[in-house]
Amino acid sequence: MKELSSGQIRQMYLEFFKEKGHSIEPSASLIPVDDPTLLWINSGVATMKKYFDGSVVPKNPRMTSSQKSIRTNDIENVGKTPRHHTLFEMLGNFSVGDYFKKEAITWAFELLTSPDWFGWDPDKLYMTVYPKDTDAKKFWEEVGVSPDHIIEVEDNFWDIGQGPSGPDSEIFYDRGESFNNLAADDPENYPGGENERYLEVWNIVFSQFNHTPEGTYEPLPRKNIDTGMGLERVVSIFQNAKTNFETDLFLPMIHEAEKLSDNKQYGKDHKLDQSFRVIADHARAITVAIGDGAIPSNEGRGYVIRRLIRRAIVNGQKLGINESFLYKLVPIVGETLKSHYPEVLEQSDYISKVVQSEEDRFNETLAGGLKLLNEVIEAAKQNGSNMIDGATAFKLYDTYGFPLELTQESAADAGIKVDEDGFSAEMQKQKDRARSARSNAKSMGVQRDLLIEIKDQSEYVGYNQLEVNDAKAVVLIENEKLVEETKSGEAEVIFDKTPFYAEMGGQVADKGDIFNEDGDKVAEVIDVQHAPNGQNLHTVNLLQPLKKGATYILKVDEAFHSKVEKNHTATHLLDQALRNVLGGHTQQAGSLVEPGYLRFDFNHFGSVTSEDLQRVEDLVNEQIFKELDVKTTITDPETGKKMGAIALFSEKYGDQVRVVSIGDFSIEFCGGTHVKNTNELGLFKILSESGVGAGVRRIEAVTSKEAFEFLNDEEHTLKQIAGKLKVTQIKEVTNRVDQLQQQVKELEQKQASLEAKMAAQQAQDVFGNAQTAGKYTIITGVIKDSGMDQLRQLADTWRDKKLSDVLVLGTGKGDKANLIVATSEDGVSAGLSSANLIKAISKNIQGGGGGRPNMAQAGGKKPAGLEAAMNDAVDWLSEQ
């Protein structure tokens, strides 16, 4: 077996398929773009959907990649099994309507067995095939695989619902008898079964059917190849590792965790080994995910990151690591991946900062979780129970990050069990909630064969002109059919050249009109999109029939186009200003460029202060007032990067790219349209800034006329306020507001003082009426025209005077009600709890609350229920 590093193995795979005519595609971001069906990119094919469903025709139908992926459906198994991971790399080769089974099988066998490549022993390879797929079996035999190494498996059919599907063939590597964990006669002891000896390394999907909405399987117009090879598994074979974790992809993090632990060593204790593995796996996942723009939060992707960090911390504590440590592994992860993902190491300082902040926060939460766990165990012991209910165990897991096994271990020390069925039920509820929250959009569309077949050339000339007088209609589509002449209603048209911009990169499509050679308006352009082969496809409302081959005059709505251009240039200025003010870690997470406003989403950890937002706005306007020239350079991607142009992870660039430079302030790859000089923007004004998701912020802004109108409206509002405040100039508004605020503060103080006096007077009557309730005494009363502050003051007076065992007071104003319960020291010692009493009576005011045994309070929205609450308090105390 060759001695290869993970980086060498990855590169060897890509180079092999490059020699077979494949283009090497860069790994896409883990965060899906324009795909609401996925929380994460979870496979290589997830980034190829647009090619497989025919919405885009790739420049090269043969592609290969090593795609970073995340799967979170079985996080609990990470560390327990040899090969479960959250983050993994999927090596893949793809054919979109080009080669098929024979080539895919021939090349797979060559890569695996040729001495020039992997050089594996053919006798150690086994293949599974779909029973009805006789071609696959035949091709495996033709390359030299023995028939007894080809196994028919009924499950070998790849189908995710509507869209492309087909049989598949899996490849297994026999690791030898020393890895065998099953008896010889065990039904799972075969290649394809659940065992440790035969390791699945590659799956080749022969995508040859369309799974239609009607549930039928129709032959695809173009058959595809989609393969997936887990890098971590292949590395474990080359490096003769017992599991994936004893490879150069994980060991550096494990060794660092050993140094940080309390003299613990990997490989000495099975349970501790699980913790080392969890830490190494989760450190990789969070590092790469945060580098791609994910941020810890309580929802979506952010929740996954937070959960992974918390699991790692808890496992760190099992190793005796009782301080923030995970952030120290971030640069080590970067080193293990730098050969293919240099950006991870480049961003390690920022990623470490995010991780450490989350660690510090959770270490405080963890203390609360341990306290809760100890209280639950103690309560169970006092109540004579031998069981912690599933809901409580799930709360510890979900809120505090305690794995079920940790709760079980702690409970077992006290002779108590955990309701696993109840825990599983709560877990399923959470999964159902997550599933229902996910978009029900189709995961992959059915191929639209008509557009894929259209190869007619169409030139976009809108960068330099907004009117074309001799555009020939080369394609007409009506009701999903190619026609020679349109009738009426709506149609799709491709011209040999067009000034209409097709929607791309967040910039909306141009609108405008189509005229015949006589100058008559014959259609309105309402949308323009890119056809699969890249042509600008115009959707039009017909006023007169259009004829194929006829020449037309195309006119873009110049006012609409100009406004969009201004806002697009403003997004570039805003993008760079955010990087300058907030830091280089900010990444564009989406944009929308309309004629009336612009929307810009960006990744950022934490909120944006009003001061920073003002700095951003000022910086953009500074560039506008400098009257910077906006220039476009057409070059290749590598040259563009050397020029310093910003590229987006979500974009795949061709051989030629447009690099847009705004003075020496901003330089980006961009295919959109722009102004010639920043002075055309006139003015830039931010309308709002907000959070729209985990670690994603959104700015909405306007330029030019809309910016002027916004400021004009604000000035008008300020003048109205000045009038109401009876000041003659706007600049006097602030001082007048300060004066009024001081007056309000003084009046509130006087009101509070009067309420306190009135409450004290009422309390004299209330405090003199102690009642006996069972073996205790209680004072109750409803205080009029008061507030919670006054109730707390009265409770302090009551406690100082030791007037009874329990005090219950209430007050109401409008539709708000408040209750307070206090219990004396003797009452608490006797087992009374204010918190329990407040829960029992707060339902009367349609509210809730809580507190400590000696003091609790509640708020509600039904003041009419206060008297009933007093009566219930007496009844409750009588029963104690």
TrEMBL record:
Return the EC number: 6.1.1.7
Instruction: Kindly report, in one word, the top-level EC class recorded for this enzyme.
Output: ligase
Q: Which organism is it from?
A: Lentilactobacillus terminaliae
Question: What is this protein's record name?
Answer: Alanine--tRNA ligase
This protein's UniProt keywords: Ligase
Does the entry feature the keyword Ligase, yes or no?
Answer: yes
